[in-house]
Amino acid sequence: AEALRTAIENSSDGLALLGAEGQLLSYNSSFRQFIKKCGGGGDLISDAVGPAVKSRDAVVESLAKNLESLS
Fold it and tell me: HSE-up of 16 (CA within 13 Å, CB side)?
C-alpha cells in the first residue's frame, strides 16, 4: 500500500480519490497544482474545476453524470 501511495504522489499526472458524492478524499501534488491553476477549491470535485476552465459548466455536468453512473 505504501509503494502505491508513493507512486501516486510522485506521478506527474493529477490523480484524485473521490467519494461516492464527488468528495475529494485524497489527491496528489499534480492535482493540487491543477486546482490552483484553474482557480478551484473546496471539498468536491466540481469545486476543483474553477472558473479558469473553458466550458466549466459542461465539465462539471460531465463529472456529475460520470459519478452518478458509478453508483
Answer: 20
